[in-house]
Write a structure and sequence with these properties.
Layout: E1 19-23, E2 26-30, E3 35-40, E4 51-57, E5 63-70, H1 71-84, H2 86-90, E6 98-101, H3 106-118, H4 122-125, E7 127-128
Parallel strand pairs: 5-6
Antiparallel strand pairs: 1-2, 2-3, 3-4, 4-5, 5-7
């Protein structure tokens, strides 16, 4: 436990690539603009992550959370619920802090978070955990 499945090379001072590694059940990614901790849902292949809780720490000390799903994962859940009866037999999907992305993988989700921060839309999507 705690061993990375995939290691990213340590970045040089000018290297903008995020670095990541496992801390128990959490996969942590460090970038120049934020740190994110992912709790994948039963998937250990980082490129296949399609459902994960994520905690984001910004340089100002604020902490944010969301549950990230891919479109395909939402479709899979709705189909599963159609058989189980959950969510009115898969008639709807609702998660209060959901962020739905097109493509799977920690790298893709990290890129989406980065773009949300760059375009000032991050705070409208993620839930702030600590308040001033």
């Amino acid at each position: 436990m705690g061993q990375p499945l995939r290691q990213t090379a340590l970045p040089q001072a000018h290297d903008p690539r995020p670095q990541g590694g496992w801390d128990k059940s959490w996969y942590q990614v460090h970038t120049d603009t934020f740190e994110a901790s992912f709790l994948p849902n039963e998937v250990m292949d980082l490129d296949a992550v399609c459902n994960a809780d994520v905690l984001v720490h910004l340089p100002d000390g604020s902490q944010w959370s969301a549950t990230v799903f891919t479109v395909a994962e939402v479709e899979r859940l709705l189909a599963s619920w159609a058989g189980s009866g959950e969510a009115l037999g898969g008639a709807y999907f609702r998660v209060p802090d959901a962020l739905i992305v097109r493509d799977s993988g920690i790298d893709n989700i990290t890129q989406v978070i980065s773009k949300l921060i760059e375009t000032d839309t991050f705070a409208a999507i993620f839930q702030r955990l600590n308040h001033e």
